[in-house]
């Protein structure tokens, strides 16, 4: 049913592009490495019989017609990474979708529905602090204002698109209509499947990431000449807030909150920090609880700022709504898991995925594959070949069921 040797070879080859010294991967949107990765994946798409094109933001789209004029079955994921990321996050979903289309073709199975496989642009948001550029464009929700977001060198998304040599067309040309559904294979990036002794899982819903940037501004002064009770130390203030973020998140059991980036200015040994900037990534499958946690954190930051004569600025970087996966697609996935002799485990996704951008557009479903030790966003990210083969078989069977 699936040529797992070919799929494993594709995963290995793609993982070599953007490789870091410690075996991780740096592959950020609109860079030469990502361009080379797209070119490799485009070859795999063509070998599978897909017609390849790039859309206005650089989504790599492989298409095939159906035997009937029906809505499109959409598959895919992303091939960009977090800094020093793993070889399976995103890439597994794109390559597995291509392998399933390739296998169906080899077995002479012509689907009724047209199919598109997409490697979505910039799912991670690593370069511009604003993720899922590609899937937003496909959903028709990416705005020209969004394209003004800048990377750390001051390059906007719009400039990066132009530098990438992509044909300039209106953003609206990227929107895909007439889509039946979207199904994504992705590594779990958590420990649930492993603890349930399950190779694959059916995703019930996806927690929505809310990204905020906090800035505390105090006064940079001499570390030796400034008495302790006369300081406006931005880093001490930030530290109090950051420690409280963890305590508050634990209060809301299903929520998670992470401070992933921290910038201290002027960052000198003998200078009281005058300015500190940090990010908070807040998630919950329940949007109301996420909003409560957001407000708790903001209010505490304001209290600390007032007590310490610091100025606080909070900027929203992205706010993605949680999404429930479609019941019919979940049933097709569960039946397929049973048919390959695996026990069915259904679970929510703590990680965000391109699928969540399609909440208002068409039904979505996701198939998770077990992550060793639940590790991801890390060079140690690993998923066993036999688990990948099972996930590919589940996707194969799910597509055949959805095609009826
Ligand atoms: O942040 C996430 O959840 C995903 O890896 N982009
Ligand atoms: Mn990721
Ligand atoms: Mn991912
Ligand atoms: Mn994803």
TrEMBL record:
Binds 2 Zn(2+) ions per subunit. Belongs to the peptidase M20 family. Gene3D superfamilies: 3.30.70.360, Zn peptidases (3.40.630.10). Keywords: Hydrolase, Metal-binding, Zinc. Zn(2+) 1 binds at residues 78, 89, 186. It comes from Paenibacillus uliginis N3/975. GO terms for molecular function: hydrolase activity, acting on carbon-nitrogen (but not peptide) bonds, in linear amidines; metal ion binding. The keyword Hydrolase applies. InterPro entries: Amidase_Cbmase, ArgE/DapE_CS, Bact_exopeptidase_dim_dom, Peptidase_M20, Peptidase_M20_dimer. Residues 207-307 form the Peptidase M20 dimerisation domain. It holds the Pfam family Peptidase_M20. Its cofactor is Zn(2+). This is Allantoate deiminase. Zn(2+) 2 binds at residues 89, 124, 377. The keyword Metal-binding applies. CDD domains: M20_bAS.
């Amino acid at each position: 049913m699936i040529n797992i040797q070919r799929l494993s070879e594709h995963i290995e080859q793609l993982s070599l592009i953007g490789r870091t010294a410690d075996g991780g991967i740096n592959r950020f949107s609109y860079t030469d490495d990502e361009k080379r990765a797209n070119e490799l994946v485009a070859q795999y798409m063509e070998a599978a019989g897909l017609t390849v094109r790039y859309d206005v933001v650089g989504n790599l789209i492989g298409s095939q017609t159906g035997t009937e004029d029906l809505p499109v079955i959409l598959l895919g994921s992303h091939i960009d990474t977090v800094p020093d990321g793993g070889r399976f996050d995103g890439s597994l979903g794109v390559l597995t979708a291509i392998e399933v289309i390739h296998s169906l073709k080899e077995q002479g199975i012509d689907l009724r529905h047209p199919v598109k496989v997409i490697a979505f642009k910039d799912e991670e948001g690593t370069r511009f602090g604003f993720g899922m550029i590609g899937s937003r464009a496909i959903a028709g929700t990416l705005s020209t204002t969004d394209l003004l977001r800048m990377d750390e060198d001051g390059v906007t998304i719009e400039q990066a698109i132009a530098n990438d040599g992509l044909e300039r067309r209106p953003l609206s040309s990227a929107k895909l209509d007439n889509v039946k559904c979207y199904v994504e294979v992705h590594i779990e990036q958590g420990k649930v499947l492993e603890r349930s002794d399950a190779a694959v899982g059916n995703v019930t819903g996806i927690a929505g990431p809310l990204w905020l940037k906090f800035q505390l501004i105090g006064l940079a002064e001499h570390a030796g000449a400034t008495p302790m009770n006369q300081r406006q130390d931005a880093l001490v203030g930030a530290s109090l807030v950051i420690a409280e973020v963890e305590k508050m998140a634990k209060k809301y059991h299903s929520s998670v909150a992470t401070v992933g980036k921290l910038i201290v200015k002027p960052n000198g040994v003998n200078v009281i920090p005058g300015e500190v900037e940090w990010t908070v990534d807040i998630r919950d499958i329940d949007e109301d609880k996420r909003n409560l946690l957001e407000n708790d954190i903001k209010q505490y930051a304001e209290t600390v700022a007032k007590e310490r004569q610091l100025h606080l600025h909070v900027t929203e970087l992205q706010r993605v709504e949680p999404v429930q996966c479609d019941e019919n697609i979940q049933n097709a996935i569960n039946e397929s898991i049973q048919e390959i002799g695996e026990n069915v485990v259904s679970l929510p996704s703590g990680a965000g995925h391109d699928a969540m951008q399609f909440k208002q557009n068409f039904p979505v479903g996701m198939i998770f594959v077990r992550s060793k030790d639940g590790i991801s966003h890390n060079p140690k990210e690993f998923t066993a070949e036999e688990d990948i083969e099972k996930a590919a078989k589940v996707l194969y069977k799910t597509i055949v069921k959805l095609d009826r």
